[in-house]
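Researcher: Please predict.
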Amino acid sequence: MSQEEKRRLRVSAGELAYLELGDADAPAVVFLHGFPTSSYLWRHVAPLLAPWMRVIVLDLLGAGDSDKPSSASIGLEAQAGYVRELLGGLGIGSFAVVGHGFGGGIAQRLALDGGVRAMVLVDSAAFDAWPGPPTREAQSQAPESGDALAAAMIRTALELGISHHERLGDEAVAEYRRPFAGEEGSAACFRFLKALDGVGLAGIEPELARLEIPTLVLWGEEDPFHPAELAERLGDVLPMASVALLPGCSHFLPEEAPETIGPLIFEYLRSRYLGAPHTHAGGPVVVELGMRPPEEEGM
């Protein structure tokens, strides 16, 4: 999945950069990243779905190779609107969505607004429990710009969010750093950090409870940004949710465990979104999925 193959499409606040894989006539799936990452996060996962689906992997406004306007809103609800504009420009009204972190929060807003047929949430922002303490601490110390400070913050966030540090190569760190390099890039980095303001997901439990779409919730048990308890809470609220917790893993599962979550996402969407017969294509599934059993009376 080469970053040089990105296309661009203008939405109301600027141009979004995106990659498109697979058959344009196939059912669509959209991949959304969080902070401080980009579409590069999904390089090991998104290609697995391309033989079956039309795969759209985008850079959110203010991140990656998308425009980084200094005045446009880049909060969660605004980002959901920009994603919807991009999909409309591509003629996509019905789709599955896969979101990580902040991108998982955007996925929930998209689902509530309609058109989403299946959803995968990976260590997602949720409810009123975001941003977490590490992010709030970074926000409290964030300057307006500063290249060295942005570089240090990005590396620290990646290292904090990956339990197996050997899985994070220098090439990946450099690619996440690249869009936020220099004076303008670092200013965009800190603007995005400050946009993680907790707005857009608080109090939506009743709406989520009416959201009858298949949802896979994947979580690293050692996530310091979004505690694993949130996965259980999402599983309780979403009526068609399956929850999988990955022991020994942290926040950035697409970096730390792509060989595990890739086949899980592929098989889940292939069966629950496309309705294809269940197989174990791509290797054994090593995490057991299932609905949480209902609590019996008196328990």
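Model: The radius of gyration is 18 Å.
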